[in-house]
Amino acid sequence: MIDATTGHEALTFMDGSSGYNQIRIAPTDEELTAFRTPKGVYCYKVMSFGLKNAGATYQRAMQKIFDDMLHKNVECYVDDLVVKSLKREYHPQDLR
Questions:
Q1: I need a labelling partner for 13 at 20 to 30 A (CA). Which of 24, 38, 42, 59 fits?
Q2: Is the pLDDT reported for residue 92 higher than 80?
Q3: How far apart are CA 40 and CA 34, in angstroms?
Q4: Domain Reverse transcriptase spans what residues (predicted)?
């Protein structure tokens, strides 16, 4: 990701760590995330960072969302995003 930003005048780095909690788990799979506490048994309804395939699922979602911008003015690695602009004056537009 760092090599892809070489030669760009403006960079904005964003961390999407709370984005994992925005992705809904399929209702049929909620039961598979069950855990027990002294107060009862609970299941996740949204993806948690600690789930086995959470990183890969989130990466695929980001690639699908930013598909038309990837490797042009956006770079994405798991939960980190970089918006890059060759010229500083283009950066506000690239951020939209």
A1: 24
A2: yes
A3: 10
A4: 3-94
